[in-house]
Amino acid sequence: KDKVILTSGARPGDAIVLTKGIAVEGAALLAREASEQLREAGVAPDLIERSAQLLFNPGISVVKDAAIVCETAEVHSMHDPTEGGLATALLELAEGAGVGLTIDVDQVNVLPECSAICKALDLDPMGLIGSGALLATVAPESVQGLLSALADEGISAREIGTITSADEGLKVRSGDGVGELPRFERDELARFFGR
User: Fold this and answer.
1) What is the pTM of this model?
2) Which are the contacts of 165, defined by CB distance < 8 A and separation ≥ 6?
3) Is residue 54 over pLDDT 60?
4) Which residues contact 62 (CB under 8 A, 6 or more apart)?
5) Which of 19, 42, 118, 131 has the smallest number of CB atoms closer than 10 Å to its CB?
6) CB within 8 Å of 29: residues ≥ 6 apart
């Protein structure tokens, strides 16, 4: 019987796993639509070209990621970071389940292409449209097996945080300490094209 996995199923204690990284779609679209600005900002042409190809490799489908998660982990919720990026997806996941979360920002895999593009255009990768990545909350004992199963299929993934109780709020931990999860009124892509 097929499992139905909802965004709202996250439970305190779950590990939060992110596949591929951020932001596949955002970096690709900016490389395609803002290549002039990127070149002017000193971004290497080969990096712009490589970024534009992210739509196809790794691509923006998460069907394979989701199938592996369902086959190999005790999974409680899944969500794909689309508009508003990873930060908005985490907010939606927490609000849907009535939980809190703590993200270890240093564990979030920001694709090198995305990092270079966001730096050049003064954008925050956490708020950039993130199709191509999948968020899953899984029982902590499932994490290692899941990461291995994904790696066996050529899909990179990392454990980026933990689901907590709602009263603990939405936190990000970094070398600078613990702060609030950033909130984006609109996607960084829209903000860029609106300025």
Assistant:
1) 0.95
2) 12, 99, 100
3) yes
4) 19, 80, 131, 132, 133, 134
5) 42
6) 129, 189
